[in-house]
Inverse folding.
């Protein structure tokens, strides 16, 4: 709101909502730009790292498996298989691991009362999702240049990455809310957990490899469904895929509602905001 | 106008509630320049945080006119991000308050007189330079109420006089709430004083009376 602009005496609910939405979008936009500056800065390559960092690890892992020549069931292309696994996993790990320090790292911003915890979390995760979406498509096409097989349905690959991002966004809000207890305590649990999750999220295995009674259990894992969805988007109908769109979307919604609820419950109880 | 009615506020440390403000009543009008005195730990910063909208009172009410724009608490720490430049900070603040970022950057540069430091990370600033940046940013937004820590006024002589002039110029249209320990600054800038003690705020129209009571605390 400009200094000279006076709000109408009793603005209607819709008008108030519109004003609040505009303010929130403005704040998130400003936070996105600021996050770019603080995370990547202008020196030592700057923004290049936003894309190069996830690429470096993903390319190394995919390259390693290609050189080792592990044969994959169904003759799936090795670099593409690891890229469709590692890059979305990088998003998962990036969002979850960084959610513990989301508020402490941005403590100075909360002096401006229009900046809320939710705005900061949205801006951080949006940046993470955008950079990974770009990297995922870029690397898959780059591999395509050498192998001649390009993503079968790039929109499906991107939607799958987006679903993983939004699901993790919901989980990250809950983790950030848990830092009411203490940032370090939460980080000590989440960091090892993201390692332990490597075989469980579905990044490096596919459901059809397993016996059918096991498949039913694996289908209950939302990220497992999402990885299958991404792989179908890339490889097309060459192996069987197992996913349930309704389940994926509802788990994203459920995770986000749960996260918002946790954040709300944590409210103003952040002890460290007292020290800044 | 803004008003505190029986405000209780504080923190939870290790699961135990610690109330710093215990029933604060106050009304601030446009044009007031109030100096808040109080010993270390009396709750001055807590009071400023409640007024700045960053800390919700545990009980009681804090209300202000809808068009009454209150600044963030101006001090060395807080509200400024250290790892980005002064110019980045100015543009960020402009964006969240709905001003043109580049116009604001120029205004801040002109007021704070940081020269080439404006384009260096704030972490490299001296505390005086940080104070200048924070103050220049708040001046560029043009608030109705300024929440100021006296430490910010303790820049070099040139900045001190600019600070006083700027505050003087805004006196009729803005409210200023200044946290201070110094009788000199209080007499210079404030028209009334309040002492925060044992979680309650007592107002004094007479500055000398307030100072003598404060010195005996």
């Amino acid at each position: 709101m400009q200094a000279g602009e006076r709000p109408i005496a009793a603005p209607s609910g819709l008008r108030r909502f519109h004003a609040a939405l505009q303010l929130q979008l403005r704040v998130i936009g400003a936070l996105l730009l600021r996050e770019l500056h603080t995370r990547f800065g202008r020196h030592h390559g700057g923004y290049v790292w936003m894309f190069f960092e996830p690429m470096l690890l993903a390319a190394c892992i995919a390259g390693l498996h290609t050189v080792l020549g592990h044969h994959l069931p169904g003759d799936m292309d090795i670099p593409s298989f690891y890229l469709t696994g590692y890059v979305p996993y990088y998003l998962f790990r990036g969002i979850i691991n960084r959610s513990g320090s989301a508020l402490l790292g941005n403590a100075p911003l909360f002096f401006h009362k229009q900046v809320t915890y939710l705005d900061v979390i949205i801006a951080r995760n949006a940046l993470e999702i955008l950079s990974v979406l770009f990297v995922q498509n870029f690397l898959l096409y780059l591999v395509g240049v050498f192998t001649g097989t390009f993503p079968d349905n790039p929109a499906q690959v991107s939607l799958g990455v987006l679903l993983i991002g939004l699901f993790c966004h919901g989980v990250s809000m809950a983790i950030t809310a848990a830092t009411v207890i203490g940032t370090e305590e939460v980080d000590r649990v989440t960091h090892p957990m993201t390692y332990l999750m490597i075989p469980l999220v579905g990044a490096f295995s596919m459901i059809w490899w397993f016996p059918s009674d096991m498949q039913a259990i694996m289908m209950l894992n939302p990220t497992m469904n999402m990885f299958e969805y991404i792989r179908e988007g890339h490889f097309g109908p060459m192996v069987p895929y197992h996913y349930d769109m309704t389940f994926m979307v509802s788990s994203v919604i459920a995770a986000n509602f749960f996260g918002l609820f946790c954040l709300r419950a944590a409210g103003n109880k952040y002890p460290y905001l007292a020290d800044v | 106008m803004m008003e505190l009615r029986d405000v209780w506020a504080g923190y939870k440390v290790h699961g135990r509630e610690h109330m710093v403000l215990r029933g604060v009543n106050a009304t601030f009008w446009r044009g007031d320049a109030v100096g808040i005195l109080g010993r270390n730990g009396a709750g001055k910063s807590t009071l400023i945080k409640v007024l700045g909208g960053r800390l919700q009172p545990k009980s009681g009410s804090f209300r202000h006119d809808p068009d009454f724009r209150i600044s963030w608490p101006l001090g060395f720490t807080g509200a400024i991000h250290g790892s980005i430049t002064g110019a980045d900070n100015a543009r960020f603040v402009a964006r969240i308050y709905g001003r043109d970022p580049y116009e604001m950057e120029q205004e801040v540069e002109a007021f704070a007189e940081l020269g080439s430091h404006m384009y260096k990370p704030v972490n490299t600033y001296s505390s005086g330079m940080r104070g200048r940046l924070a103050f220049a940013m708040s001046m560029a937004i043009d608030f109705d109420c300024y929440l100021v820590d006296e430490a910010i006024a303790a820049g070099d002589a040139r900045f001190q006089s600019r600070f006083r002039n700027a505050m003087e110029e805004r006196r009729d249209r803005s409210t200023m709430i200044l946290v201070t320990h110094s009788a000199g600054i209080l007499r210079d800038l404030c028209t009334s004083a309040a002492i925060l003690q044992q979680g309650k705020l007592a107002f004094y129209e007479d500055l000398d009376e307030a100072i003598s009571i404060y010195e005996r605390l």
About this structure: The longest helix of chain A spans residues 117-147. Confidence is low (pLDDT under 50) at residues 1-8, 271-276 of chain A. Chain A has one domain: 13-274.
